[in-house]
Design brief:
The structure holds 2 protein chains of 2 kinds. By secondary structure, chain A is an alpha+beta fold. Chain A folds into 3 domains: about 150 residues, Aldehyde oxidase/xanthine dehydrogenase, molybdopterin binding domain (Aldehyde Oxidoreductase, domain 4), CATH 3.30.365; about 190 residues, Alpha-Beta Complex (Aldehyde Oxidoreductase, domain 3), CATH 3.90.1170.50; about 325 residues, 2-Layer Sandwich (Aldehyde Oxidoreductase, domain 4). By secondary structure, chain B is an alpha+beta fold. The chains are: A alpha+beta, B alpha+beta.
Chain lengths: ~775, ~190
């Protein structure tokens, strides 16, 4: 492989000039003549019968074009009004999920009716003129209560349990019987909200002449959205165009097919006008997917030397009221990652997915793996505490050794490559771990509470082999050498901040020997780009980039034939060297990719039988997932008077294989750490017992400000994967997965003198203060 | 009602309902879509603009209140022909990912430096408390504001986007932390 200047360089992003000057086009910036605006009426109840929906006053309001209710849509020709869920879970209960509620609402924020008007302000006004009569029904918001009786979210199912997934490997019972020590802990992984700063946004337009629906949507999956809209709207898929223009963050929340997208598409078809819908932040908190929300009851068996022999987990996963696209899959990922980066081979996990009267949970950054990493990393600390061992040494004792890769875990995943101990040692050295422990002991004598938290995570990403995915796991790339030598890349992944317009161009520049400015990377338009699966699960570069590498190889093979023909050489004797073709060992003659592209366009000097044109479309089917890993260390001090946590140090050593642009990879880690740290300390979606959302605005839901997060010290090791031709793993979610347990372990470690063993997140000052004062302030 | 104001140095006038928010006037009446809306509680700061040179959240100002005043949006802070040092610094320091909060963040940061030309990192973090970013974890935003402050104090020449192309490793970036970017065995394979 030819790596020269670009791959590995910290170059500025090519997408940035339009973003920093305000010239980018997000969905809300799309302006089309004749646009009308939609607003939704949403349920104020967690669970209620819909007795009457009367839109007559709204319809009569000046400026209102139309109002549609669930009944209108349900009876509409062609509209299949239930939304999709992608899964391979046996016997999964899948209640109907109508795009607008029919007869019953099951969570606060469920859409009931849509108003279309000539201005966004008027549409919103008119929603208040729609009279809805409700008969409230009993509400359940807690997954454990829901699974064990309680009122049913879907009466017709006769249960709230959507699925039970039991798993066992080895002989956990024997291991527990033989254990020197066992620990048991309930760990609640609270519900959080993804909160991309751009809310859900869509503009749909129906060209009745062409019978074509164009949908601009802030989505991570334009092609999958097109496929699902075709099914839901009853349109041929080749008559739908989905465009994801600039997308303002996703974090998994835009990896979905939302009721609002189907409704807006349908409304555009009825009115034959462009229809715009931009949700408010309050609507976003109610009806954009949430993440996490698991109760994880763990039991660990260990020997006196720190060797962990078995893990039992019972997971109550709160699914919300309906399945969204990947809702039931997320807790299954938790099960798969229950081994962490450790050797123990006796594992029993039961996942119970339960419906509740809340918004659906789905794939929020990390999607199931943060939950696993959290309880595994807490488990290691609980064992360390019980045995009086250092948490780092318990980890060292249990790591899968470097020599054991590829390693198949008890839960059935085959980890590609890893070197956990080297990465941990690098982190421990960089943090001066021994010095920190010494300082901690000294400060404790002064009544100051320093905590040191470790997290040695591994995660599964680069989603993924199709056989192991709810739907296709491959991705695609086209590389086109244009007649004048510029190169167009069409990628099936759909970046929304990850910078692939830059990193993919870096790869092309090196491999095809062109200046990076001659490469254009196109994404997010189903009429331009061949089918692609999208950007999620830290797959963009691992899978999409690998497809790009294959397409480049095909281009190179053809270009070599063209060059060899001009030189009357054997193609086997021609090679790419430093981005140019030459006869092996003879630098006297060379040809650039652009020159070969021009010859391929002219068509008159090609070898017999070779088709004109120089372009290629390839798809990469990953043979396995990839497994990035790392060690995060967090140091906190807790103010004994107030319970306030201050993060003194945050250090992360991550390993995601090769890095194409380290600056971009570091950015992903920074953002990931902030989100994970914020789950540990600040964030929590709260529904009250009546199903009311108490954290419905950014004034109530705490995403961190700049002064609430620390400076991050980063370093990395490089352990390439063998799973893809680039040797790279994903880095989009690693920071989120690694950071939450590091922060929680630090806070709980700080409170060890008070006999604290565990506190559930978010670790807010009042909880910590209470824990410190439960023993009247006296330490153990 | 008729509203007359100055936006990015140019006179502008349009008809508006009295309740029209300044952010919607800018975006919809004047097609200046670089100012974004991220919330409905004045929490996120994506809509930050300068009103008579002072940062305001344009979702919290009626268009009518801006009548007769001077508004500067991201489009007026700088453009591809002449980037503001803050824009260049955000670019060079990778102070943005999805870009949605970025325009408001840059406008706030420009105002921050107006009030404090040489802020410490803590002062930068505190000064940006009205702007939320969900992508960057703020690390590179702090670095960008620090770098822009230095460039402005030094009176560094303003660059165009073209000046900074082809994109190359910015000199002011710290060297990559960690060891080899490309593993030695692969470097060997390339020779």
């Amino acid at each position: 492989m030819a790596f020269t200047a670009m791959v590995g360089a910290r170059i500025r992003r090519r997408e940035d000039p339009r973003l920093i000057t305000g010239r980018a086009t997000y969905v809300d910036d799309v302006k089309q003549v004749g646009t009308v605006f939609a607003a939704f009426v949403r349920s104020p109840h967690g669970h209620a019968k819909l007795l009457r929906v009367d839109a007559s006053r709204a319809k009569a309001h000046p400026g209102v074009l139309a109002v549609y209710t669930g009944d209108d849509l349900h009876h509409a020709h062609n509209l299949k009004s239930s939304l999709p869920v992608a899964h391979k879970i046996p016997d999964l209960k899948t209640p109907p999920h109508y795009v607008l509620a029919i007869d019953e609402v099951r969570f606060v924020g469920e859409p009931i009716a849509v108003v279309v008007a000539d201005s966004a302000y008027t549409a919103r006004d008119a929603t208040e003129l729609i009279e809805v009569e409700y008969a409230p029904l009993p509400v359940v918001i807690d997954a454990e209560k829901a699974a064990n009786g309680a009122p049913f979210v879907h009466e017709s199912l006769g249960t709230n349990v959507a699925f039970t997934f039991p798993f066992s490997a080895g002989d956990p019972d024997a291991a527990f019987a033989a254990a020197d020590v066992t620990v048991k802990q309930r760990i609640v992984n609270q519900r959080v909200a993804p909160v991309p700063i751009e809310p859900r946004s869509m503009v749909a337009n129906y060209d009745a002449g062409m019978q074509q629906l164009t949908m601009y949507s802030a989505t991570q999956i334009p092609h999958l959205l097109r496929t699902q809209l075709a099914v839901v709207l009853g349109l041929p898929e080749n008559k739908i165009r989905v465009i994801a223009p600039e997308v303002g963050g996703g974090f998994g929340a835009k990896l979905n097919v939302y009721a609002e997208e189907a409704v807006i598409g349908w409304v555009a078809m009825q009115l034959e006008r462009p229809v715009k819908y931009i949700e408010t932040r309050s609507e976003s908190f109610q009806a954009m997917i949430h993440g996490r929300d698991q109760i994880d009851d763990i039991e660990v068996a260990a020997m006196r030397d720190g060797t962990i022999t078995a893990l039992r987990v019972k997971i109550y996963a709160n699914l919300g009221a309906y399945h969204q696209l990947l809702t039931p899959v997320v807790p299954v990922l938790t099960l798969l990652m229950a081994n962490g980066c450790y050797r123990f081979s006796n594992v029993a996990v039961t996942v119970i997915g339960a419906f509740t009267n809340t918004m659906s949970t789905d794939a929020y950054r990390g999607a199931g793996r943060p939950e696993a990493t959290f309880f595994v990393e807490r488990a290691l600390d609980l064992v360390a505490l019980k045995l009086g061992m250092d948490p780092a040494e318990v980890r060292r004792k249990n790591f899968i050794p470097k020599s054991a890769f590829p390693h198949t875990t008890a839960t059935g995943l085959t980890y590609d490559s890893g070197d956990y101990e080297t990465t941990m040692d690098k982190a421990l050295a960089a943090a001066d771990y021994a010095g920190l422990r010494k300082r901690q002991a000294e400060l404790r004598k002064q009544g100051r509470y320093l905590g040191i938290g470790l997290s040695t995570y591994v995660e599964v990403c680069g989603m993924g082999p199709s056989a192991a995915m709810p739907a296709a796991g491959w991705d695609s790339a086209t590389v086109r050498v244009e007649p004048t030598g510029s190169i167009t890349v069409l990628t099936g992944v759909s970046p929304h901040g990850q910078g692939e317009e830059t990193t993919f161009a870096q790869i092309v520049a090196d491999e095809l020997g062109v200046p990076i400015d001659h490469v254009s990377v196109v994404h997010g338009d189903t009429d331009k780009v061949q089918y692609g699966v999208g950007t999620f699960g830290s797959r963009g570069t691992a899978v999409g980039g690998s497809a790009l590498k294959l397409a480049i190889e095909t281009i190179q093979a053809k270009a070599v034939k063209i060059a060899a023909h001009q030189w009357e050489a054997n193609p086997d004797d021609v090679e790419y060297r430093n981005g140019k073709m030459q006869v092996k060992g003879d630098p006297s003659k060379s040809m650039t990719t652009a020159e070969a592209g021009f010859l391929a366009f002219m068509g008159d000097k090609l070898p017999p039988g070779l088709e004109p044109g120089l372009d290629a479309t390839r798809r990469f089917e990953p043979p396995n997932f990839v497994f990035p890993f790392g060690t995060h260390i967090c140091v906190v001090e807790i103010d004994a008077q107030t319970g306030q946590v201050s993060v003194e140090k945050y250090l992360a050593v991550d390993d995601c294989g090769r890095l194409i642009n380290p600056m971009i990879a570091e950015g992903q880690v920074h953002g990931g750490i902030a989100q994970g740290l914020s789950q540990a300390l600040f964030e929590e979606v709260i529904y009250d017992e009546g199903g009311q959302l108490l954290t419905g605005t950014l004034m109530d839901y705490a995403i961190p400000h700049a002064e609430q997060v620390p400076h991050y010290e980063l370093d990395h090791t490089v352990t390439p994967t063998t799973v893809n031709p680039l040797g790279i793993k994903g880095i989009g979610e690693a920071g989120t997965i690694g950071s939450t347990p590091a922060v929680a372990n630090a806070v709980i470690d700080a409170l060890a003198p008070f006999g604290v063993v565990h506190i559930d997140m978010p670790l807010k000052p009042e909880k910590l203060w209470a824990a410190m004062h439960a023993s009247n302030g006296s330490t153990r | 009602m008729q509203i007359d104001l100055t936006v990015n140095g140019k006179r502008a006038s349009f008809d508006a309902e009295p309740r029209l928010l300044l952010v919607h006037a800018l975006r919809d009446s004047l097609s200046l879509t670089g100012t974004h809306v991220g919330c409905d509680t004045s929490s996120c700061g994506a809509c930050t603009v300068l009103l008579d040179g002072v940062s305001v959240k344009s979702c919290t100002v009626f268009a009518a209140q801006a009548a007769g005043h001077e508004v500067t949006t991201i489009e007026g802070i700088g453009n591809a022909d002449e980037l503001h040092p803050m824009q260049e610094a955000f670019w060079s320091s990778h102070g943005l990912q999805c870009g949605y909060c970025t325009t408001g963040m840059i406008v706030s940061a420009v105002d921050l430096l107006r009030r404090n030309a040489d802020p410490s990192d803590d002062e930068i973090r505190a000064g940006l408390e009205g702007n939320l970013c969900r992508c960057t974890g703020y690390e590179n935003i702090v670095i960008a504001v620090r770098a822009a402050g230095k460039a402005m104090r030094d009176g560094t020449k303003r660059h165009s986007v073209a000046d900074l192309m082809p994109i190359h490793p910015p000199a002011e970036q710290p060297p990559p932390s960690g060891e080899g970017i490309i593993p030695p065995q692969l470097q060997e394979a390339n020779r």
